[in-house]
Amino acid sequence: MVINLDVSMLEPCEPLERTLEAVQALALGDCLHVIHSREPRMLFPMLEGRFVWKVGTARLGRFEIYIWRADDADMAATVQALMENAEVC
After folding, report:
1. What's residue 84's pLDDT?
2. Would the N or C end of the chain have less CB density within 10 A of its end CB?
């Protein structure tokens, strides 16, 4: 299941806090799709070891970040397909 979280209109540090809160609830088969106004570089070290992420091409001044559990081996292919479909839209 893809869980969408748009933090693009929030003031710092709310995007980081909400994203960290949302990733804690991810189950196997879940992916968090975050819409952000900037690349959240402070977030990535906090995810290392427990989660995998992929940053999509910025569109309309926004970044799309896909985050899933590191032990979810099947999710990488799903995220790749989601990102390819998003580029077509």
Report:
1. 85
2. C
